[in-house]
Design goal:
This protein is an alpha+beta fold. The protein is about 55% helix and about 15% strand. Strands 3-2-1-6-5-4 form a six-stranded antiparallel β-sheet, with helices on both faces. Strand 9 and strand 10 form a beta hairpin.
């Protein structure tokens, strides 16, 4: 078997030639010494050639012993070796410094690459977070424009799917007893089938949604195959990750927002935090829609009650007041006293529709107050005019609406005036009779004030005894004399 050794291990055990391991100082010193030996060799050879001695080693040694100049020349290898070693030392320091600079440069390059990678990663994170916040803002703007709960929930599932790209988005709403979480909206095809079956999950018992609606706490299954609370839904076979968030508003649990993905580990911490914000917005929107619906119902009920009161009041006015007609002809307006109405006005009052005359120059517009027809306006052009246009007819309708509003305001004003007068009368009478302490005087003044106020009616106040089966007034209790049980005060 062939074993591949680590390069570092091979380097540590291998033996390299000695000259490879010599440093720059030693190498330069060696070169200097070798170069220095050239001087004594050349000097000796030159002396040997000029001495006419035999060319042998003995002559070389004799010349070296007898010539002082060669002694000086023989020291050249030492000095040249020292100078060369000094130069080698400088070169070695320079190379080492260069290597350190190269190493630092490499480190700086690595650090720069590292920093660029971190910046790019941070930029991607910021862009991802920005996109999430934009998606939340987009969904938030979308869900605030709806006033019907069904439209709000359904459009929210579509908006979340479009902005976040989740496979399935479902919104569950708790029933009145808070026993079941009922699927109210979904974006996926499987979710639509679940809606058709009125899909619901038992709170606290079925699925992640059941867990969330009972504990009012988010739950995330990054791998649905290992989550004990996961409900294996055959309508959503591609689900690999699921996250359910509670919808809480005003401290009350309203339901749950359920999102599912086809990928495992699909939800990051930022996704969770972002969807939690979205769930809070959705809960507030649901609460607002519910409140708006309740207010609409209460307003509609009050309108019905007020309309009934208004119609009764106008019915009473019309029964007690004769027909009142006014005719406006330039330059004056006259009142017509007649029990007979124009046929077109009668028809407009009976049908509640705009009546156009046969000559197309006359229209009669009914006047309605809270659905009750109280009269009509008859408008007639002169014989040389053109027929009524649509704009002129719309103007007449707007005039009748303004007139009906003005008449209703006048009726309300008159009622408020009458109510204020009655309250003022009662207050004045109470103030006058409260100044007396005698029962007879109080009764007499009360009857007198009522008689003066009513004017055309006889006022009688009578106290009866309990002996006759009638209850005696509190004002007679504790009197010294037994009053006449049939005593009357008249005005």
């Amino acid at each position: 078997m062939i074993h591949t050794q680590n390069p570092r291990e091979y380097k540590s055990v291998s033996k390299k030639p000695a000259f490879i391991q010599i440093g720059e100082t030693q190498r330069y010193a060696l070169v200097g010494v070798l170069f220095g030996f050239l001087f004594p060799i050349i000097g000796t050879l030159l002396r040997l050639a000029g001495s006419h001695q035999p060319q042998d080693i003995t002559a070389v040694f004799n010349i070296q012993r007898t010539d002082p100049l060669l002694w000086i020349i023989d020291s050249a290898p030492v000095f040249l070796g020292l100078f060369a070693s000094y130069a080698g030392r400088k070169q070695e320091l320079l190379l080492r410094s260069n290597q350190e600079l190269n190493a630092r440069e490499q480190e700086l390059i690595k650090y720069q690459l590292n920093l660029e990678e971190r910046v790019n990663e941070r930029t991607r994170e910021i862009e991802h977070r920005s996109n999430l916040l934009k998606a939340v803002a987009e969904v938030g703007r979308g869900i605030t424009s709806y006033r019907k709960l069904s439209e709000l929930l359904q459009q929210t599932t579509y908006l979340i799917h479009e902005n976040f790209g989740y496979y399935h988005v479902g919104i569950f709403i708790l029933d009145e007893r808070k026993e079941y979480a009922v699927l109210a909206a979904a974006n996926s095809a499987g979710g639509q089938r679940m809606l058709e079956r009125n899909h619901q999950l038992k709170v606290g018992e079925m699925g992640i949604v059941g867990y969330v609606t009972e504990n009012i706490k988010a739950r995330i299954a990054l791998d649905v195959g290992t989550d004990a609370f996961y409900f294996n839904n055959p309508d959503l076979p591609e689900t690999r990750s699921e996250m359910s968030l509670p919808l809480v508003a005003g401290g009350q649990i309203l339901g749950a927002l359920d999102v599912q993905s086809k990928e495992s580990l699909a939800f990051s911490e930022e996704d969770i935090a972002t969807l939690q914000i979205l769930a809070e917005q959705l809960a507030v929107a649901i609460q607002n829609v519910n409140l708006f619906s309740e207010i609409e119902k209460a307003l509609e009920a009050s309108k019905l009650v007020y309309g009934e009161v208004s119609r009764e009041a106008w019915g009473k006015i019309l029964r007690n007041q004769p027909h009142t007609s006014f005719l406006a002809t330039s330059p004056t307006t006259v009142q017509i006293y007649s029990e007979f109405l124009d046929p077109s006005i009668t028809k407009a009052v009976e049908t509640g529709d705009i009546i156009i005359g046969n000559d197309n120059l006359t229209i009669s517009v009914p006047i309605k107050v809270r659905g009750l027809i109280i009269g009509a306006i008859r408008l007639k052009k002169n014989d040389i005019s053109e027929a009524w246009t649509q704009d002129e007819t719309n103007l007449a309708i707007a005039l009748s609406e303004q007139l009906s509003a003005a008449l209703e305001s006048a009726r309300l004003y008159n009622e408020s005036q009458q109510r204020a007068a009655r309250e003022s009368l009662v207050s004045n009478i109470s103030a006058r009779i409260s100044a007396f302490s005698n029962v007879d005087t109080i009764l007499r003044e009360t009857v007198r004030e009522l008689g003066l106020t009513i004017g055309n009616a006889a006022v009688t106040f009578q106290l009866l005894d309990q002996l006759n089966g009638q209850k005696q007034a509190d004002g007679q209790s504790g009197r010294g004399a037994n009053p006449d049980p049939s005593r009357k005060v008249r005005e």
